[in-house]
């Protein structure tokens, strides 16, 4: 693995090290206790709940493109929405808003989310079904957006689409299933994104990173951290990457993925680190389908009843952008199943 001499615009601690699985489970199930995504459980005491002010780790935390990390709607009004019309209204308003989603909201298309928004599910029952969220349009950017603690089901297209040069996005502690196309696609020159502690299930095309083999404008963009996600029986694209570098795939749990785990194509640079692959015949592909080969470095992963990963070339180290620690991959199944998905944080 080579380390680039290039320096990222800032460093933040990616505090994902967990001292003991039992401590995490106790913290998650204890009365009134919630654990911050990517944080050591000992840092969150009993009776503490998370708020919209919590900050991400990984690429969404980096100081770049005029933003020092991702804050979403912090500092703006807090509103609670229960209908598609209300959600669409506030998501499209100018300026920061903290938007609390209460209960099940059925939509029939993509709702556009513009800059400086936090969209947070209330409790354990927040759901967006039938459609999805698109971060930004060609004229209204979707920068500095946070989406947490929401169940996404049955989308007619993508469940969440990060697109049109959106940057500084944090997608955390959600549950995705049963969409028509991608569950979570990041494309069209978007950048500085963290996808953390989500559960993906009952779906095939899970995570696309990069619009197409011909969209070379993505070169130098699409820097994404995927950490502590649970790919629970989904078929493929965890993620499927074009052009991006570096992409950091860290401490995720892959289980029963029928086609493959990660695919790096079109000269993308992907670091696959500290993950646990269980019953995955093809954990890592270099190139896929009609797409040309990418580059992959794999280190410190665990393969259980799984195939041998493909690797090629060298990749820019994520440490040139942020500091981090790696959980023991053998503990990843317990850590991730205990902590990923909705209802694990107090919002």
The CATH architecture can be named as 3 Solenoid
CATH class: Mainly Beta
- Largest β sheet strand count, sense and barrel closure: 10 strands, parallel
CATH topology: Pectate Lyase C-like
CATH superfamily: Single-stranded right-handed beta-helix, Pectin lyase-like
Q: What value does the Rg take, in angstroms? A: 18 Å
Binned, the helix content reads under 10%
Overall pLDDT score: 87
> CA-to-CA gap between the ends?
40 Å
Parts with pLDDT < 50 across at least 5 consecutive residues: 1-53
Q: Enumerate the strands of the largest sheet in spatial order, edge to edge or round the barrel.
A: 4-5-8-11-14-17-20-23-26-29
Shape: globular
Beta-strand segment tally: 31
Strand content: 25-35%
What's the number of structural domains?
Answer: 1
Class from secondary-structure proportions: mainly beta
**Helical stretch count?**
3
Explain this structure to me?
There is one protein chain. This protein has 347 residues and is mostly beta strands. It has one domain (13-339): Pectate Lyase C-like, CATH 2.160.20. It has three helices and 31 strands. A ten-stranded parallel β-sheet has the order 4-5-8-11-14-17-20-23-26-29, with helices on one face. Strands 6-9-12-15-18-21-24-27-30 form a nine-stranded parallel β-sheet, with helices on one face. A hairpin with a 2-residue loop joins strand 2 and strand 3. The protein is globular and about 50 Å long. Belongs to the polysaccharide lyase 1 family. Residues 74-283 form the Pectate lyase domain. Residues 1-39 form the signal peptide.
